[in-house]
Structures are given as C-alpha cells and as structure tokens.
Design brief:
By secondary structure, this protein is of the alpha+beta class. The chain is built from 25 helices and 17 strands.
C-alpha cells in the first residue's frame, strides 16, 4: 500500500475524476455540519439544494464518516481511502483463508483482487468500499451457512447493513447477488446429497440480508423516498439515466491478454477507442468503468485448471463456483442482459454494468489462489515464501502498471486543497455575502461548493428529477462566445434561480450590461484542480440579481430579519400587505413551514400556511398575510425519523437475541449439561 500511495502518507492528495467535483464537496459540508452539532440531512450548496442523506453517497452514518469530526475533509477523505485499502487486503486474505487456502495463497489472492480492481478507480470512493465489503459479506455468509448461531447471524446482518450505510448501493446490490449465489450453491449441494432437512439452514442468510435493510433503514428509507421523484424512478423513460452507461464492450475483454501492450497504451486511451467498440447496448462507456485486468500470472494459474491432474487435486474446492461467478459477472458487465433486466427491481436502479467485474476479479483471484495453494502444498516454508515474493511481485507490478494507465486520478504531493485558503475567488465570494447570498454559475459542477457557496450546475448520482428538466438547463458563456451573454432568456432564468455570480475560464467578449467584472487572475485552487497552469479565471457579478430569500412584491414588507442554517429558516417580517415569501431552494418533501402572527400585545397565534409543497412549484414559496409575523421553515423528513426508529429497534432486538443466546450458553456450560445441549446452546431455533 505504501508503494502505491506513498505521497498520501506525507500530505499529498488525489486529483482527477470525481474527487473534487463530487466527493470532497460532500465531505466538506458533512464535516462542517458535524462540527456545528447538526446532522447533515440537507445540502444547501449544490444547485437548489438536495437531501444529502437520501442521495446516499455522502455516507452520513457510515462509520468512516466519524473521521470528519476530527480531521478536515481532505485529510479525512484520504485517511479513509488508505484505511479501506488496508482493510480490503486484510479481509480479502481472511476470506481466502475461509476458502481453505493456506497463508501463501490467501495473501496472493488478496493482492490480486485488491490491486487489480481498485487502483484504476482511485477517484471513485465507492470502489474501495465495495472492495472491502464484498469479501467480508461473502465470508460472513459462508460462516453462517456452515454453523448458524445468533452471533454469526448478527455479524452477517451488520456486515451487509454497514455496506448499505456507505450508500454506494450499486456495489451493495452486486454483493448481495453474489451472496445469494453462494446460498443457492449450498442448497443445490444439499439437495444433491439428499440433505433435505438441512435446507432450512440455507434460508437463514437471506433472512440476515433482510435484517440488514432494517438495520440500515435510517439510510435506506430516505433514499427510497428520493428514488420515487428522481431521474432513476425506474420507469425507464428518463433520457438522462442510462442503465447501460459504463458497460464493458465485448471486444475490450481482450484487455485480459492485451492490456499493457495495446489497450492500455497512452495512444489507444487518448483516441478513446473504447467508445468506438461494438457493444450490446448503445450507452457510452469509459476505460475506468470497463477495466478488467486481473494480471498475467493469475490468468496463467487459472488456465492450469484445464489440467485434469490439477482439477483432481482441487475436487474438494469450490473453484467451479468461482469460475461460474466470473463468467456471470463478465456477461452482465458487457451489457448483454440489460434489455432483459433494465425493468427488474434493483437492476433498473443502477447503471455501470462494468462494475460487475468486481465479482469476476474476485473469482479469478480465488481460482488462481486455489491452484497456487496446491503448488505450495508439501513445500517448505522458505519455498512458499519465495513463491509468494516472486509471483506476488510480478503480479503486483503487472496490474499496477495497467491500472495506472487507465485511472483518471493521479496522486500529487501538493494537492489543490492546499490552495483553497489562499483562493482569491473564495475570499471574494465571502466578501460578497458568502452562502447567505451568493449563488455561483461555474463551468465545473459542484466545484463552487468548496468555496462555501451555492453553485450551479449540479452533479449528483441520484438527484431530484426537476434538476434534469429544461427549467434548470443553463447555458454558460463558453457555449456561444461571440454572442452577447447572458441573453435575455438566459438572464431571466439566472435571476429566477437567484444566480448572483458567474465564473468563467475565458473572458466574456460581449457581456450584457447587467454583467460586471469583479476580478480576474489565476486562482491558487481552481488552477490546480483544472490543471490550467497560470491561466486566469474571470469572476462576474450580475447586477440587480434576485435575493435567494425575498418577498414578492418587494415593497410588501418592511422589517425583514432572517436567520438560517442549511436545514432551518427563521424570519421576523413586518408585512405591509399580503405577499409571498420566496426561498430559492428546491421544494422537497420534508420541509415544513409555520407562520405565527404576533399582535401588538406580543401574543402569538399560529396561522394556516400554504407553502410550495401544496402549490407544486420548483422553488419554495409561502403565502403571507398582512401583519407582524414569525416564519419558520424546517427540514423534518419523516423518512429519516421512521428509518431511525426502525434501525434502532432492529439493532436492539438483534442484540437482545445475541445476549440471550450467550447467557443461555453460559448457563448450560455452568450446569454441565449433556454435550448435545451444549452444542445447541446459542443456535438459531429451527436450524
């Protein structure tokens, strides 16, 4: 791990891919909310805001997020990165040991799995989390199948639940499918050997997986709520959601033997040859999502299974099962089955079929590990160690070189984050009103969030469907550089959305009269993120832009005092006549409003309020009567409350069973019961 990511140990950082446009803005916001003593349920900086918990990939309740309480977002992100790398190797090794391998083969299996699949996807946080929990969940499922008990049931359910809490549901779904295949194999073997009564045991892992959804309900229920009104509603009619994106073109499978000398050469990657390959689906792809290269050494070891002598020695091993998973994973990765599955529950919710190569990578690594284990049998410890060093080193160098050429992220010693505090753009936006007033239109989605302000356009995995409508399609100055910008239509839309500033990488040649240049010059942060050297950035202000919080008509209010946090708005307003309060954020379920009238004596009376949830508008609006009013808007998602209750109740119930079983087992031991009684103590009833 140190050889791969040495700069990260000395304060370096990843640059490229989704690191800065997606993950770091979320981590920064979560850390700030944690520090303020609030749960980050609503993110008010991306576009018009979105339910951060429901979007899921922030992993608010994932254990690694606790790092954000003690470290800044950049450090916490990379500490988590390295921690998951270490855990992935350890857990993959332990999984291989559970398959009956000795240490030499188990270490080799772990190296091949982790280092051939993840480094190419270094900019994608979900990949390393999946690399951890796939072997963990398979291991826990196998343990539960072998010898059911309440403690093992609890461990299995917690493993699956933790993966769900990470929010990267695509890999969690793939992991669950893999474990169901393991259960199916066990049931088939039991039926084959006439063990009908043992089939009941095979039903226990699916129950554990179901329990995992209950344990993770605090994360799952808000996501299900968002799914119903997102671009991934499952109808298959959304033009912005393509389940086939990120597939593995069949011809690109030749990278298994032609990786380092052809497919992953800089010339081929620069030509985007992968995009031009014939495929089963019309969706686009990219080399990162389509990457599958377990290495020459593991491939040669797997090919040794063609020998009947090797197969005879491995007849008690599950190598056929892992090769079957490998084939199934590669088949789905090509997109060949999407026409059949794109409307099925689960499959219709995810894109990136190339991610199924995670199963195939583990399958090849495990099959190769079985063969190596037989090669190492009856050899001395020194010979085993020598084989591991030789084969492991060659395999590591091979896959490391391949993944480095494909990856869209690089490690730099002086990351862009270090320049954020000295950024003139960040300082200027803070002086212009910060997050309480500024909304930035920038060429890089979500990048403006890192300045501590709201920004457009958005970049979300699961987003409200409104964000993918024409109403929120914005044209930047780079689209038609020779025309006056913004046009009348674009200016009206920008003002409606309360955009106050525009960031450009080139000077706007024909700015509208409403556009005022604030400052230009190289920026210590953005120039590093975008790799622009010393090229200047240009920051403009839109004159007479609409306030994000305003009364319509403007002269309807006298005194107007506002106090707000990302999840709560409170205002004292003197309405001279009836009007409408407009808050330029997304009208989303869970936002509850309250209007309180205060008479001259100070007596408060709650009024019936009609807000945007009832009016079905894009922005939040609230009708206000004449008089002195106190207005409260607060995000109280019922899905979160219900999920928290279900999670707590499920955890308490399972812990109760585990503790009761442990007490019963201890009591039986103390009473020196018969061996049969001791053996049954702590077991799940009905196994």
């Amino acid at each position: 791990m140190f050889l791969c990511w040495r700069p990260l140990f000395y304060g370096g950082g990843l640059v490229g891919g989704d690191t800065y446009p997606y993950f770091l803005p979320q981590k920064q916001f979560i850390g700030e909310e944690f520090s303020a003593g609030r749960l980050p349920l609503w993110h008010d900086r991306t576009s018009l805001g979105y339910p951060l918990l429901a979007e899921s990939q922030g992993g608010v309740f994932y254990p690694a997020s606790v790092l954000l309480l003690f470290l800044d977002a950049h450090t916490a992100y990379h500490v988590s990165f390295l921690l998951h790398y270490w855990l992935a190797v350890i857990i993959a090794w332990r999984f291989a040991r559970a398959q009956g391998m000795q240490n030499t083969a188990a270490v080799f299996t772990a190296i091949v799995f982790v280092y051939s699949w993840f480094p190419a996807r270094a900019s994608l946080e979900w990949s390393i989390i999946g690399a951890v929990w796939l072997p963990m969940c398979l291991w826990q499922t196998q343990r539960l199948l072998e010898s059911p008990s309440w403690s093992r049931f609890f461990g299995c359910a917690v493993a699956f639940a933790t993966h769900l809490l990470a929010g990267h549901y695509s890999l969690a779904f793939i992991t669950q499918l893999s474990c169901f295949m393991l259960v199916a194999r066990t049931m088939w073997l039991q039926c084959r050997h006439g063990r009908g009564l043992m089939l009941v045991r095979s039903l226990i892992p699916p129950i554990a997986i179901t329990s995992a959804f209950l344990l993770a309900a605090v994360q799952v229920l808000p996501t299900l709520e968002l799914k119903q009104i997102s671009q991934r509603d499952g109808s298959g009619e959304s033009s912005v959601f393509q389940p086939g994106y990120g597939h593995l073109p069949p011809l690109y499978l030749t990278q298994i033997v032609g990786s380092w000398w052809y497919w992953h050469s800089p010339e081929i990657l620069a030509s985007e040859a992968v995009q031009k390959l014939p495929a089963f689906v019309e969706s686009a792809t990219n080399p990162v999502e389509a990457h599958f290269y377990p290495g020459i050494i593991p491939l040669l070891l797997t090919l040794m299974l063609l020998s009947s002598r090797v197969r005879y020695r491995l007849q008690r091993r599950a190598w056929k099962f892992w090769l079957l998973l490998t084939v199934l994973g590669l088949t789905y990765a090509t997109g060949a089955l999407i026409p059949l599955t794109h409307r099925l529950p689960g499959f219709s919710f995810f894109m990136g079929p190339g991610r199924y190569t995670m199963i195939s990578t583990l399958g090849v690594a495990t099959a190769a590990g079985f063969v190596l284990d037989q090669i190492c049998a009856r050899r001395s410890t020194f010979q085993k160690l020598l084989l591991l060093v030789l084969l492991g080193t060659v395999a590591f160098v091979d896959v490391r070189w391949s993944t480095q050429t494909v990856s869209d992220a690089v490690v730099v010693q002086n990351p862009p984050w270090n320049g954020l505090q000295e950024s003139w753009i960040a300082e200027t936006l803070r002086s212009e009103g910060g997050n309480s007033r500024v909304r930035l239109l920038a060429p890089g989605p979500n990048i403006g969030n890192l300045f501590g302000v709201s920004s457009l356009p958005q970049y979300l995995g699961i987003g409200p469907a409104a964000y993918f409508s024409e109403e929120l399609e914005l044209v930047g100055p780079e689209a038609n550089p020779e025309e006056t910008y913004p046009s009348v239509e674009v200016l009206a839309k920008l003002q409606y959305l309360s955009v106050t500033h525009i960031l450009a990488t080139e000077e706007i040649r024909n700015p509208d009269d409403q556009l005022v240049l604030v400052r230009s010059g190289p920026d210590t942060f953005l120039n590093r993120v975008w790799g622009r050297g010393d090229s200047p950035c240009w920051l403009y202000r839109i004159e007479d832009s609409e306030d994000r919080i305003r009364i319509v008509p403007r002269d309807a209010a006298g005194k107007f005092i506002v106090r707000r946090t990302p999840q709560r708005f409170e205002a004292e307003v003197e309405m001279l006549e009836a009007g409408t309060l407009v808050w330029s954020e997304l009208a989303y379920p869970g936002w509850e409003s309250e209007v309180i009238a205060i008479d001259e004596s100070g007596k408060a009376t709650s009024l019936q309020a009609t807000d945007s949830a009832q009016a079905e508008t894009l922005l939040r609006t609230l009708a206000l009567p004449e008089g002195t009013l106190r207005v409260i808007w607060e995000y109280r998602p019922g899905s979160f409350v219900r999920g928290a209750v279900v999670s707590f109740a499920s955890f308490s119930l399972l812990m109760g069973f585990v503790i009761a079983a442990a007490i019963r087992k201890k009591k039986c031991s103390q009473e020196s019961v018969e061996p049969v009684g001791v053996a049954m103590a702590g077991r799940i009833p009905g196994e």
